[in-house]
């Protein structure tokens, strides 16, 4: 996780940060919606339909419409109603006030969350909207917007969301523990409070509260869905529990079920979370589990055909192969497959990464492993790099391999105690990308010897662990030139391979 100034630790501080945050709108959609708002031949329904392809703008319009005094007791439940209340002139002014960003420059964490939300909307429309035709707008927009508070977090603090994905989805840590460390509080209460501040549809608030604090009925329903698979047995159990039977008829549950299915599929089609939510959805719809699963798979494929983006993971990709052969990986998770870097020697880079990932480890001692690691970093297009190993007490970082450095810097040694930045990097695996935008913030924290060894305003630092202990720091750059997103991804993938090689080496690196 990039190291930044301390994040707010209380709900009030997070709300102050996120409540008024303007979310970016992709430039292509920004222009398309602007033309539609200026076209007097377009109906409000047409414009609302167009806005489903631009969820951040849909959220902005809905929350702006619900700020009005008249909306306090009757908030808009759909975009068509929100547009009617707001008016096209104010909607256009709101659009012009939002940042317009080329799609390729949208924050990756935000783009991934928006894709999940659109997938959930497609699941909700396919599973529930035709059965509850009078409520289709509430289902449609509620399923899209229930994760909107997370969009704001992904915009303001993308590194926190990526770290959450890494630790919870990638490493299996308890979400409560991770959220307390990263946010200073649980995520669901923050989402519920933001939804209330924005006056999002009531179904959204109900769903978030159900997951966060009022989950007794949800747990009972999950137990029933797990224990009984036959419709007759399920109905008998529900007859004996009228309260649960009434809860299972609530239309508001549809948006929670759709988003839970989309999130579970994002992690794994064959995982226990997916089976749990499929069983509950089948119980809600009173359908056989196998029929429900087939429908969910079909809807995922339709969603991918409509919204898939090569920059992001869509779980429908995993349906093409055995489920465990292709899965989404958090940005920092070790992965056997790596994309080609933007520069350098792609063929050699792939070969070296494959060598690092071989199991059992092909390296007889640490020296050839580090040599292979340095060559891989060079092959991915980096001009200078140094691999520093920590001693057993983590008091000293010492260069063990480097390239591109002046001869006087090749034996670089960095005392850890003298640098708050180094201490943070050695606490747990972390990544820091220095650019001119944040160099002023971190320059004073960088050890002078390190700045002298790799001078410039563009620098990548990443600490690597073996087990629970950080053992290595990798520092690299392109001779001071900017490091693009693709180049940064190649660096990350190479470091993942190095970390995997350290894990498979069989023993902690000898000092």
Named CATH topology of the largest domain: Hypothetical protein af1432
- The mean pLDDT is 85
- Fraction of residues in H or I helices: 55-70%
Distance between the termini: 26 Å
What does this structure look like?
The protein has 511 residues and is an alpha+beta fold. The protein folds into three domains: 25-105, no CATH class; 108-333, Hypothetical protein af1432 (Orthogonal Bundle), CATH 1.10.3210; 346-504, 2-Layer Sandwich (Beta-Lactamase). The chain is 56% helix and 8% strand. The protein contains 25 helices and eight strands. The strands form two sheets. The protein has a six-stranded antiparallel beta sheet, sandwiched between helices. Strand 3 and strand 4 form a beta hairpin. It comes from Pseudomonas delhiensis. InterPro entries: HDOD. Pfam families: HDOD (PF08668). Residues 23-214 form the HDOD domain.
